[in-house]
Predict the structure.
Amino acid sequence: MSMRENSNENAAENFAGAKVALIAGPTASGKSSLAMRIAEQASGVIINADSAQVYHDLRIVTARPSEADEAALPHQLFGYIDGEEACSAARWASDAKAAIAAAHQDGKPAILVGGTGLYHRTLLEGLAPIPEIDTDIRAEIRALPVADAYSALEREDPASATRLNAADSSRIARALEVIRSTGRPIGDWRREKTGGIAGDIVLAPLILLPDREWLYERCDRRFADMFENGAVDEVKALLHRQLDPTLPIMRAIGVPEIKAFLKGGMERDDTVAAATQATRRYAKRQYTWFANQPPPEWPRTNESEYIDNCSDIVTKLLI
């Protein structure tokens, strides 16, 4: 076990009873500004729960809080990982536990903010103890056309096949490799999740689901502003590092589009349009996920109710 992991485990033993707000929702829905308001009123610590904002290479492209915002209030797990690494949900959850524990020890509530549902679930519900997948089995499955993989899954794990979209290549491959490598369906493993903290903390969640047109307009404005205010230079510096193109940082929304622009394969307006469309599609997927996947008792709100919900969360954190 690494020193970081050992330190995190020791710290995480002390988060029982911690007060934690979770501000979730699609990109551009106003999560960061609401988290800042709550942290200011409740003297809390803002903890990043966005899979793109963990990397320090792309502050502008990933819409991380500004240096001024990070200096104004305590921020944790923003830009703390080098882009040459791939951050897993398990690693983030371990680091988040330590950050929550540290805030709790200081008598401060934690305000988790971010739109990565997998991160939220891993932290709150824990992880399934699925063994390492045989590398040959993984390679064989990943080489299959998605239709063939889905047909195989229907035969070998029909429950998973019924649950998944027939075009969802990554989840189909994952379910198929688990059943073939372990002999047990992935659903069985997931019923044995361990390490979640939902039962140990006092959670005040809020899901932001603003009007869709309002959200898409913000997505449009956001990338156009990014393009004019440093995003191109950020991507240029990232490309100079010649990192593995399969790394998460290299696939962040905006990076492939600006890369094409820098290489002369796309004009400025086309670049902005392509990245804006990618942002809209991502926001739409997140919107659907947050509308349906989190527990039904978690409050959902639109932009007109943000302030009222902010006050309610602050009250819960200060009691």
User: Anything to note?
Assistant: Residues 1-12 have pLDDT under 50 and may be disordered. The longest strand covers residues 202-208. The chain has 15 helices and eight strands.
